[in-house]
Amino acid sequence: MTEMFNPKANLVFCRKYQENLPKMPNPPFPNAKGEEIQNTVSKKAWDEWLELQTMLINEKHLSMVDKDAKKFIAEQRELFLDNGDYERPAGFKPKDI
């Protein structure tokens, strides 16, 4: 029996953009939080988060072995993905939706 291609299987209702968008092929973390993010965040939103995360780490000279830096990034990630008031690096302009 041949399995039919289901385009909806590759979509997720993105909590950031509030619409069905292509999902990430794999969870971003190897734990329950990673699975939750994969099931609620689109690839587009995650890629934008990674870009912002890199800017925050660089601008604030964060060390990701530091517990407080990890906590800060995790908090900012949740704010960004939930359209909260996240920290923006100097000169940061969000991409057009």
From TrEMBL:
Question: What GO cellular component term, any one, is given?
Answer: cytosol
Alphabetized UniProt keyword annotations = Iron
Any GO BP: cellular response to oxidative stress
Source superkingdom: Bacteria
Statement: the UniProt record of this protein carries the keyword RNA-binding? no
Quote the Gene3D superfamilies the UniProt record gives.
Answer: Fe(II) trafficking protein YggX
A GO term, aspect molecular function: iron ion binding
What family classification does the UniProt entry report for this protein?
Belongs to the Fe(2+)-trafficking protein family.
Q: What does this protein do?
A: Could be a mediator in iron transactions between iron acquisition and iron-requiring processes, such as synthesis and/or repair of Fe-S clusters in biosynthetic enzymes.
Recorded protein name is: Probable Fe(2+)-trafficking protein
Its source organism is Moraxella caprae
| Origin organism lineage | Bacteria, Pseudomonadati, Pseudomonadota, Gammaproteobacteria, Moraxellales
